[in-house]
Amino acid sequence: MFEIYAVNIRDFKDEKILDEFFKYISAEKIQRLLRFRISEDKKRGMVSDLLVRYLICNKLKIKNHEINFTVNKFGKPFLKDYIGLEYNISHSNELVVCAIGNYGVGIDIEYIKDIDLNTANYVFSTEEYEEYNNVSLNKKLDYFYSIWTLKESLIKAKGMGLHIPMNSFTLTRNSNKELYCLYNNSKYYFKEYSIPEYKLSICSKMKAFPKDIQFYSSSEFLSFFEPALKKQLL
Q1: What is the pTM of this model?
Q2: Domains, in order of start, for the chain
Q3: pLDDT score of 232 more than 70
Q4: 4'-phosphopantetheinyl transferase domain spans which residues (predicted)?
């Protein structure tokens, strides 16, 4: 079974408070965050890391300092010393989301904004592009982001990043309208979630998707690290 958690970075009324949490993340991650020139990027990166740590500590009943991350050869992070707990994280605009469970999983969220729809050539397979051309103009953007997040979630579930071109595989619906994809002799399943102004998709070989997304306020998980700051986080 998977669970999906979300945090809105808009909840952070004073982003300087986040500097108090540097001591809870790795030195490597700190250096990456400090390279961000835009404060919102830094905020998304910090909240993403802290949310993952909070969830892992709660699921495994361990301390933050006991968490060890490593990456596969394609750069996908995973827990080094604990087998049986998988997670994946994504963020866009004001939302940070994390899927966590007992199986490999990929999640993607995108804020819906106007784009050059000619990029569809790089996202859709031939079959999907034909379907896209038959979609009415006022629904093309929604269709684009739906396919984009679904495919991105599969790529993240595979953990191979840019090594899988989006237009190299096709999404299919069965007779029950369930989305799936056959990729390298493996069957992947999907679920989409409705969030105003966003598209969110999750992918796994297991169909154990949650019904709803659980939203956290900043105080709910940051006070886990710094209880004394709880009032400032409200």
Answers
A1: 0.91
A2: 1-103+209-234 (3.90.470.20), 104-207 (3.90.470.20)
A3: no
A4: 104-203
